[in-house]
Amino acid sequence: MTNSAEGRKLVGGGDVPQLVRAFGALSVGLIDDPNSVKSLVDVIENTKDAERDLKVAAIVALGLVTGPAQEESYHYLVKKLGDDKLDSIIASYIPTSLGKLGNDAAVPDLLKVFVSKDTDVFVRQSAAIGIGQLASLRQAEVLKALKEYIAEGKDQQTRHFCFISLAQIGRRAAADNLDGVESAHQELVKLFGDEIKKPSSSAHRSWAALAAAIYTQKYAEGQPQLVERIRDAWEKENDLSYKSAFGLALGILHIEDMGKKLFEDFQGTKDADHKGYTAVALGFLTYTDAADALRQQCQIKSVTPTYRLQVATGLGLMGDAQAVSTLIETLQTAETLGVSSAVAKALGLIGDTEAVAPLKDIALDKSKQDIVRAFACVALGIVCEKTDLPWNARISANNNYRARVPAIDEVLDIL
Question: How far from the centroid of its chain's Cα atoms is residue 411's Cα?
Answer without folding.
Answer: 13
